[in-house]
């Protein structure tokens, strides 16, 4: 592809060299450079790509996009100066892959909790409607029915557009993707054309990166600020941040709610551990999901489906056929009446939602035993809050390790214990070994009790000292239940 064709997609401040040079590959990783590459020097969180300009020059690049021109310019290289390399990379990646997002009805989902479930169910709905579809999510990516391993919630622009291109080539007409706050802030979604955006909710998370809740909210909001007028913006009217998301968007504004008047309303008619009778805009439908948080997710999915133009009657039928996402309020049962639920809840608000749901259903007929930890090298401020919220809504609490990363599990648990008063501490065990913690919780349970294993959900690893070890809560839970 000619460099000039690629540059037509971005705003250029200055070009030094030949714009008609042939580009053989587009890269932002200096290790992947080959003869004829276009290298985009991006200022990352930990590494500044500008440092590698001398290296890639020796490696045979044809052109370099950067925010600062190097002091020494090579006559064989074309230099392109831009104001923001990260934004430029997004648009260049879209152009390189033929703007695949414009050939799909792409729906982005952002928010603290519910992104994975909502995006996955929109993908599943499209397939139930008879369309080929793609998915980009925390758990797994899909190119129609082909599963592709997911490393990040929202991939880098090159990976993102490559996957979208593969979806188009596979005949997909629709795609759903999670839009993380990191991705929005780092402009990973720059250059993408969205048919719609969905906002789930906003609670404390990722403050290790964003530092403040306001900055976290601003990152989410930037996604809606950049939606085109042809898109829809669907937000949660019951979340105070929902209205904020709509303040500066050009997209068509719509709301969903469980509590107030909105374009799309949901109401829980009856709730059980294995499902819910849900009313969507007054139409009752039996769904295989449990909890108020899932009622919100499903109402958002229902709204998105109708905004995509699908038949309302058929959508209701398809809602009843949807199945829960792996590791999201996923129940397991023993032969003697003990239920264990594995859930990804790793924020205070998510724990409150899951435990409140379990308490509402169980009532006084059984005890709730909760196993939870907190991730290492992440927001330490939420650790005592998580422990306190879990203790308030559990009969027994076991604090354990999550992904300790480079921290000591006992130190993380100590941070969590700071949120517990003497009464809560008396009902709490601290077991750093997560496998042993789960086994202990299950062994304490009796008929009618519910064990919640929170924090990791679908993850099949535990990260310790930079090494990922195989560990799947679901496998450990099933093993422990089989031994009762």
UniProtKB/TrEMBL annotation:
Record bears the keyword Cell division: yes
Annotated source species: Paramuribaculum intestinale
Function: Catalyzes the addition of meso-diaminopimelic acid to the nucleotide precursor UDP-N-acetylmuramoyl-L-alanyl-D-glutamate (UMAG) in the biosynthesis of bacterial cell-wall peptidoglycan.
Post-translational modification comment from the UniProt entry: Carboxylation is probably crucial for Mg(2+) binding and, consequently, for the gamma-phosphate positioning of ATP.
Cofactor(s) this protein requires: Mg(2+)
Lineage: Bacteria, Pseudomonadati, Bacteroidota, Bacteroidia, Bacteroidales
Domain of life of the organism encoding this protein: Bacteria
Protein location: Cytoplasm
Protein name: UDP-N-acetylmuramoyl-L-alanyl-D-glutamate--2,6-diaminopimelate ligase
Residue span(s) of domain Mur ligase C-terminal: 327-457
Keyword match Cell division: yes
Sequence positions that bind UDP-N-acetyl-alpha-D-muramoyl-L-alanyl-D-glutamate: 30, 152-154, 180, 186, 188
Motif annotated as Meso-diaminopimelate recognition motif, chain positions: 402-405
Keyword terms, alphabetized: ATP-binding, Cell cycle, Cell division, Cell shape, Cell wall biogenesis/degradation, Cytoplasm, Ligase, Magnesium, Nucleotide-binding, Peptidoglycan synthesis
Pathway membership, UniProt: Cell wall biogenesis; peptidoglycan biosynthesis
């Amino acid at each position: 592809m000619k460099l000039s064709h690629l540059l037509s997609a971005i705003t250029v401040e200055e070009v030094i060299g030949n714009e008609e040079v042939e580009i053989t590959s587009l890269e932002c990783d200096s290790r992947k450079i080959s003869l004829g590459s276009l290298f985009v020097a991006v200022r990352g969180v930990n590494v500044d790509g500008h440092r590698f300009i001398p290296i890639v020059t020796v490696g045979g690049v044809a052109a370099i996009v950067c925010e600062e021109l190097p002091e020494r310019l090579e006559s064989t290289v074309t230099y392109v100066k831009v104001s923001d390399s990260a934004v430029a990379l997004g648009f260049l990646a879209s152009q390189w892959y033929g703007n695949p997002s414009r050939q799909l009805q792409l729906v982005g989902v952002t928010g603290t909790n519910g992104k994975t479930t909502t995006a996955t169910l929109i993908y599943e709905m499209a397939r139930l409607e008879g369309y080929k579809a793609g998915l980009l999510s925390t758990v797994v990516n899909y190119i129609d029915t082909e599963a592709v391993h997911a490393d990040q919630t929202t991939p880098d622009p090159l990976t993102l557009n490559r996957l979208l291109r593969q979806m188009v080539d596979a005949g997909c007409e629709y795609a759903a993707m999670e839009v993380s706050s990191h991705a929005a802030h780092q402009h990973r979604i720059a250059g993408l054309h969205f048919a719609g955006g969905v906002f789930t909710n906003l609670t404390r998370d990722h403050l290790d990166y964003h530092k403040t809740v306001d900055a976290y909210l601003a990152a989410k909001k930037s996604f809606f600020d950049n939606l085109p007028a042809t898109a829809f913006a669907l937000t949660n009217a019951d979340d105070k941040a929902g209205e904020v998301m709509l303040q500066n968007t050009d997209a068509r504004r719509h709301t969903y709610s469980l509590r107030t008047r909105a374009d799309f309303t949901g109401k829980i008619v009856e709730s059980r551990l294995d499902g819910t009778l849900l009313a969507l805009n007054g139409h009752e439908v039996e769904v295989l999901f449990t909890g108020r948080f899932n009622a919100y997710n499903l109402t958002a999915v229902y709204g998105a489906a109708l905004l995509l133009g699908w038949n309302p009657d058929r959508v209701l039928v398809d809602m009843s056929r949807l199945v829960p996402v792996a590791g999201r309020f996923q129940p397991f049962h023993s032969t003697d009446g003990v239920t264990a639920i594995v859930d990804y809840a790793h924020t205070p608000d998510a724990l409150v939602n899951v435990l409140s749901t379990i308490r509402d259903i169980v009532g006084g007929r059984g005890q709730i035993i909760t196993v939870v930890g907190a991730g290492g090298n992440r927001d330490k401020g939420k650790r005592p809050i998580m422990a306190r919220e879990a203790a308030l809504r559990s009969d027994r609490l076991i604090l354990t390790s999550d992904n300790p990363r480079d921290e000591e599990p006992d130190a993380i648990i100590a941070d969590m214990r700071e949120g517990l008063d003497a009464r809560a501490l008396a009902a709490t065990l601290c077991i750093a070994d997560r496998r042993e913690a789960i086994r202990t919780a299950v062994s304490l349970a009796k008929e009618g009790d519910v064990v919640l294993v929170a924090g990791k959900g679908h993850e099949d690893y535990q990260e310790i000292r930079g090494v990922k070890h195989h560990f799947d809560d679901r496998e450990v839970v099933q093993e422990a239940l089989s031994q009762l």
